[in-house]
Design brief:
The protein has 177 residues and is mainly alpha-helical. The chain is built from 7 helices and 4 strands; from the N terminus they run E-E-H-H-E-E-H-H-H-H-H. The N terminus is likely disordered.
């Protein structure tokens, strides 16, 4: 059966395929407000808190906020993945930096190894894939693993827990371990 749409004709199967290709992401005022507030509040808090003049903020945490506050129910957005992914990827970046230095190939090696280790440990968190780049380009020290990475990721996960669970239709996290 053919259906006319404007000047073109499409079969029912083509129309069904077109419907299935649309984004599964939901857009609602609540999602917009929770995402915006969660990201703002978290990055503001991380930027204000510091110990010994070391801030708890790094650029990949902004991308982590997108996952934690908008696609909060994704396996990639859970505390295990936020904390574990950032910790493991930063550790990999530090090892690569200390063993091989800062070169184009070490940036690539760091990212590749970080992805492999996140998959192996079931802590895949896409924003953490940038951590080896941050570590290697900045020439970070081992302290960076704990401040800002581990402390910041823990605080980010805690704030995601609080903000997401203020919504009656959200139960975050969907898993811990």
């Amino acid at each position: 059966m053919q259906r006319s749409v404007g000047n073109t004709s499409q079969s029912n199967n083509e129309l069904q395929l077109k419907k299935k290709r649309s984004s599964p992401l939901k857009v609602s005022l609540q999602a917009i407000l929770v995402g915006g507030f969660g990201g703002f509040f978290t990055i503001f808090a991380l930027s204000l808190i510091s110990w010994n003049d070391v801030a708890l903020l790094m650029a990949p945490f902004g991308a982590s906020c997108v996952l934690a506050f908008h696609v909060w129910d994704s396996p990639l957005s859970q505390p295990r993945n936020i904390i574990g992914g950032h910790f493991i990827s930063t550790l990999v970046g530090l090892i690569v930096l200390n063993c091989f230095g800062n070169h184009a190939w070490t940036l690539a090696l760091g990212v590749g190894l970080a992805i492999m280790m996140m998959i192996l440990t079931k802590t895949t968190h896409p924003p953490a894939g940038a951590d080896p780049i941050v570590v290697i380009l900045a020439g970070s020290t081992w302290e960076f693993l704990f401040l800002p990475v581990l402390s910041g990721a823990i605080l980010l996960s805690l704030l995601a827990y609080i903000v997401n669970n203020l919504q009656p239709n959200r139960k975050y996290p969907t898993f811990w371990v």
